[in-house]
Design brief:
alpha+beta
Length: 239
């Protein structure tokens, strides 16, 4: 081969090598760019995932706080409603307590009045009820000082009625003339112990007591009727 052929062949080889190098360089560049894009996408997706997780975490926290605040507000509202209901019921009971005074008060004004006879008969019935509960041959009785003459007037009748109902001999009823039940409430002693009327009977040893005052009867009836009263006044009871 002459020099020209050798030079030509060398140039061809150089071009071939250069072309291969350029192709290889392109392949490397494309591969590197693909790897870079893949890694960049992975980093972006990882960041997006972190951001989503952080957002979901904060969203859950906000939702929990909302539920807690709602629950607290709901409980506070329920407490206010229940308190208002209790206030209404307390007012009703207080009004009923004042009405009890009308049962026992009128006989002081007129001993021949209709109310006088009604209250006297009521006292007898209350005494008989206590005797039926105690079933004792001898009992102690306490009443208000204002009611003493009415109670004494009804003792024999009450003892006889009890004896007939229980089929026993009439019991001995000893009226306590030393200790009386408190008087009815007034504006001056509204916070002191009071009794609107009625009687308290006990066995001679004091171990069995039957409280049959008007106030005690009102308490019993009020407790018994309280669910019905709430339903009538407020409908469905707040849970």
């Amino acid at each position: 081969m002459n020099d020209a052929d050798v030079s030509k062949q060398i140039q061809q080889m150089v071009r071939f090598i250069r072309q291969e190098a350029e192709e290889k360089a392109n392949e490397i560049s494309v591969s590197a760019e693909e790897e870079f894009n893949i890694e960049k996408l992975q980093l972006v997706e990882a960041d997006k995932k972190k951001i989503r997780q952080e957002y979901e975490r904060k969203e859950r926290q906000v939702e929990i706080r909302k539920k807690i605040e709602y629950s607290m507000q709901l409980n506070a509202s329920r407490i206010k409603v229940l308190q208002a209901q209790d206030d209404v019921i307390s007012s009703m009971k207080e009004a009923a307590s004042k009405e009890l005074l009308n049962v026992s008060h009128h006989h002081h004004l007129n001993l021949l009045s209709h109310h006088h006879h009604e209250y006297r008969n009521l006292l007898k019935d209350l005494i008989v009820q206590c005797l039926l509960r105690l079933k004792e041959p001898s009992v102690l009785l306490r009443c208000r000082k204002d009611d003493l003459h009415l109670v004494e007037h009804e003792l024999d009748s009450a003892a006889q009625e009890y004896a007939e109902k229980a089929n026993v001999d009439p019991p001995e009823i000893i009226v306590d003339n030393q200790v009386y039940l408190p008087p009815g409430p007034t504006h001056h002693n509204s916070h002191d112990l009071y009794c609107s009327g009625g009687v308290v009977l006990a066995s001679r040893d004091g171990k069995i007591v039957c409280e049959n005052t008007l106030d005690a009867r009102l308490d019993v009836v009020f407790r018994k009727k309280l669910p019905e009263i709430r339903k009538q006044l407020f409908g469905q009871i707040v849970a």
